[in-house]
């Protein structure tokens, strides 16, 4: 087939360019395809949806203010709603590593909506991507607004619910395991007794604390700067546009989005993505600690601590028959490593803001939203495939507890620290329990027995 049957010629300020005939996107999107063949990764559906919501809300507002003709405006709204629904997802093709600030991404959406809206008005008039779809807008205010909207949706709909499930799962195990006494450990060496349920209650509260922090961060994402236009001065904007478009956004999202206290600060900085990523980094840090604990507690089954057992999910070795590894915990740890790296990427991109705008917004959007997605997916797998199925090996818990040298800690109030230390060292050197040494020294009175009773110590 010749080029004329496959492509159409489009023109923009840089000249002519060939665009596939079947594509709804236009010249600027095609230039981005040609210029930024970098990763093959595009911004996620939730971001495209947010952009569609902004375009529909803006067109509705512009019609209400009399700056956009009703027939054209209604077509734009319908086309934008089709974008919101995901009907044209395959038309959003700009790589995340693209021209600064996301101009190409914004034009991709503008061009797709304009082409579809032109169809909807029957081709009697051409809907212009800039003049009509982008009316009262700029990339510089809509891109960060779409990012905050997308992140707010993802955190509300996906991440907070799975964090609730994780906290509840740990709390359920804490309640289940509270009767189980075991050896505590500090520096990976013998520590005073603890209840297994107490360990798990710590995990539950750690998750709960981060969940609360993320809920607080969510409020900051409700700040969006629509109407700031190029640099916050609201150039080319009709009076009254901002409150009207904000109301339309709230109506379409059922979320309490609001204007920033200072529009210039919003335009200059990536405040909330940076702050939210710090909270995600903290979550990742805690989950690495927790999953590492669970790997230690389940280590073995014959040569490790083996105080808990994990549900087996798949074979663990290509050479050692029957070996089963803590696969879900390892996966979660890897995801957390990635999220910690992502926080550095967002912070570094945040530093790159200059004067009235941060041009690194596309990579911040990709990294931030992908971090939320990864964490939600990992936790949504961790809970049913691992945490819910954890069981206890009570015999091992009792054995390690009874052999722990730190039981001697209970003797310090009555015998003194130095005498207790000597008893502990003797037990270690002679490979005996604390109780055996006390018996040999004739010190095993009823008072001493109570002092080293793990139940009392825990």
Automatic annotation (TrEMBL):
The UniProt record lists the keyword Lyase: yes
Annotated GO biological process: aspartate metabolic process; tricarboxylic acid cycle
Domain Fumarase C C-terminal: 407-457
Keyword Lyase: yes
Domain of life: Bacteria
UniProt KW keywords: Lyase
An annotated Gene Ontology molecular function: aspartate ammonia-lyase activity
Pfam family, one: Lyase_1
E.C. numbers: 4.3.1.1
TM region(s), chain numbering: none
Domain Fumarate lyase N-terminal: 16-341
This protein's GO CC annotations: cytosol
Name of protein: Aspartate ammonia-lyase
Organism, scientific name: Salipaludibacillus agaradhaerens (Bacillus agaradhaerens)
């Amino acid at each position: 087939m010749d080029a004329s049957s496959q492509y159409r010629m489009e023109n923009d300020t840089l000249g002519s360019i060939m665009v596939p005939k079947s594509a709804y996107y236009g010249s600027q999107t095609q230039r981005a395809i040609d210029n930024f063949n970098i990763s093959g990764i595009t911004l996620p559906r939730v971001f495209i949806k947010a952009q569609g919501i902004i375009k529909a809300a803006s067109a509705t507002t512009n019609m209400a203010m009399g700056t956009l003709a009703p027939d054209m405006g209604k077509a734009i709204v319908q086309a934008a709603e089709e974008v919101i629904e995901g009907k044209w997802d395959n038309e959003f093709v700009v790589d995340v590593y693209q021209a600064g600030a996301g101009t190409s991404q914004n034009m991709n959406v503008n061009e797709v909506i304009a082409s579809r809206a032109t169809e909807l008005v029957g081709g009697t008039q051409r809907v212009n991507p800039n003049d009509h779809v982008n009316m009262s807008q700029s990339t510089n205010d809509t891109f960060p607004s779409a990012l905050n909207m997308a992140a707010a949706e993802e955190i509300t709909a996906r991440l907070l619910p799975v964090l609730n499930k994780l906290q509840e799962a740990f709390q359920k195990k804490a309640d289940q395991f509270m009767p189980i006494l075991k050896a505590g450990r500090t520096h990976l060496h013998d520590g005073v007794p603890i209840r297994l349920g107490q360990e798990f209650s710590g995990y539950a509260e750690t998750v709960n604390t981060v969940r609360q922090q993320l809920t607080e961060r969510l409020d900051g994402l409700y700040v969006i700067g629509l109407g700031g236009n190029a640099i916050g001065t609201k150039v080319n904007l009709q009076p009254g546009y901002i409150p009207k478009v904000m109301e339309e956004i709230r109506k379409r999202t059922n979320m309490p989005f609001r204007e920033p206290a200072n529009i210039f600060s919003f335009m200059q900085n990536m405040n909330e993505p940076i702050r939210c990523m710090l909270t995600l980094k903290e979550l990742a840090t805690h989950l690495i600690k927790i999953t590492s604990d669970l790997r230690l507690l389940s280590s073995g089954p014959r040569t490790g601590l083996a105080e808990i057992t994990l549900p087996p999910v798949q074979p663990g070795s290509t050479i050692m028959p029957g070996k089963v590894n803590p696969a879900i915990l390892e996966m979660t740890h890897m995801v957390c490593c990635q999220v910690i790296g992502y926080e550095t990427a967002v912070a570094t991109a945040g530093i790159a803001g200059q004067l009235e705008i941060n041009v690194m917004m596309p990579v911040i959007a990709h990294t931030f939203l992908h971090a939320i997605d990864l964490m939600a997916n990992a936790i949504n797998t961790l809970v049913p495939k691992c945490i819910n199925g954890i069981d206890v090996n009570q015999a091992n818990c009792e054995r390690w507890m009874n052999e722990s040298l730190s039981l001697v800690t209970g003797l310090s109030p009555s015998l003194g620290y130095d005498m207790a230390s000597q008893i502990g060292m003797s037990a270690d050197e002679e490979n005996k329990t604390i109780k055996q040494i006390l018996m040999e020294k004739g010190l095993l009175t009823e008072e001493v027995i109570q002092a080293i009773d793990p139940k009392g110590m825990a």
